[in-house]
Specification:
single chain, mainly alpha, 53 residues
């Protein structure tokens, strides 16, 4: 039984379901970030930070 609990805890266990759906599904989060975020501005910032531009 202990080995089963170890595997459960190492693979996310019961918290995995809650963390995936506590704030909505990952697809819903992508839609919200896409609608609310300024992706082009964020791309420019990322390029500037890593020195591409």
């Amino acid at each position: 039984m202990k080995i089963l609990r170890l595997i459960e805890n190492m693979s996310g266990g019961t918290a995995l379901v809650e963390s995936m759906h506590g704030a909505g599904s990952p697809q819903t989060q992508k839609v919200m970030h896409g609608g609310l975020g300024n992706l082009e501005q964020e791309k420019r910032w990322a390029k500037r930070i890593v020195g591409i531009e």
